[in-house]
Amino acid sequence: MRWKNTTKSFGRISISIHWLVALAVYGLFGLGLWMVGLGYYDTWYHQAPELHKSIGILVFALMIVRLIWRFISPPPKPLDNNSQLTRLGAWFAHVLLFIGLFTILISGYLISTAEGQAISVFGWFSIPATLSGIEQQADIAGTIHLWFAWGLVILSVLHALAALKHHFIDRDDTLKRMLGRSTKTHIINGE
To answer: Domain extents for the chain?
Structure first.
């Protein structure tokens, strides 16, 4: 498998970023749900939010890399058997996933920096507070963060179900391409 995408298949970098972000999003979602239920005297009361913020900042950086990589190595062309409606739906879902994820990451930053404090990323480095002190910043950003997180998880589940539908019902290569599995067509074409 190649590092860069081809017109028919995803490369190692795109596949790795896709699955890392997916894993991180579900991990952050679960951690977020768990940590809001912690009491002040729970051991993880202060540690869980710091972990959540640190991972969130790393995901933000990875998403910037992902966007840049899309320009350096564009994704494969849609499969020939996909209808125009399927292609449009896939494009729209991907746009919503990107917008949703960036909205969650930016709103999380605004929650964390509302009081003017920088975000420490695992103690390695800090991200300064550039916007703070806006009236009800943490509350408004928190509401956006919550609703977009739920929306992103629901949309990503639909995205996964669509990939499974392509694999098991349509029997096409949509899912195989994101798993890095070459098909006979790709091998014959040298991709």
So the answer is: 12-184
Would you give the DSSP letter of residue 127?
E
Rounded to two decimals, the pTM is: 0.91
The architecture CATH gives domain 12-184: Up-down Bundle (1.20)
Only one residue has tokens 């404090």, namely: 117
How does pLDDT run across 102-161, given as a tens digit for each residue? 999 999 999 999 999 999 999 999 999 998 889 999 999 999 999 999 999 999 999 999
Model confidence at 185, in pLDDT bands (50, 70, 90)? very low
C-alpha distances out from residue 176 to 16, 79, 104, 114, 173, Å:
14, 12, 29, 43, 5
Tell whether the model's pLDDT for residue 34 goes beyond 80. Answer: yes
